[in-house]
Amino acid sequence: RDIGVTGVQTCALPISLSWPAGAGLRLQMQTNSLTIGLGNNWEYVTDGSISSTNITVDPAKPTVFYRLVYP
């Protein structure tokens, strides 16, 4: 299923993400140290009922990863 982010605004803070409504997609994130990179510790940021969110950038967390998942 090829569904992804339909809008990203990075010229202002917070970062604004949006994706197709009604697709049931959920946004996940993980934060690790610079030496670890990606791991398996994904946490849900949204549930499948919304299609956009704003992300506040935290300078104390230099490596934060996001992904959209379909249950």
Folded structure, characterized:
0% of the residues lie in helices and 35% in strands. It has strands spanning 7-9, 15-18, 26-31, 43-44, 52-55, 64-69. The strands form two sheets. The chain has a three-stranded antiparallel β-sheet with strand order 1-2-5, with no helix packed on it. Strands 4-3-6 form a three-stranded antiparallel β-sheet, with no helix packed on it. The chain is globular, with a radius of gyration of 13 Å. It starts with 6 loop residues before the first strand and ends with a strand. 4% of the residues are buried. The mean pLDDT is 83.
Strand and helix order: EEEEEE
**Amount of beta strand:** 35-45%
Sequence stretches where pLDDT stays below 50 over 5 or more residues: none
Backbone structural class: mainly beta
Q: What is the CA-based Rg, rounded?
A: 13 Å
The number of helical segments is: 0
Provide the helix percentage: under 10%
**Average residue-wise pLDDT:** 83
Shape assignment:
globular
Largest sheet: 3 strands, antiparallel
Total strands:
6
- Which sequence of strands runs across the widest sheet? 1-2-5
How many angstroms separate the termini?
12 Å
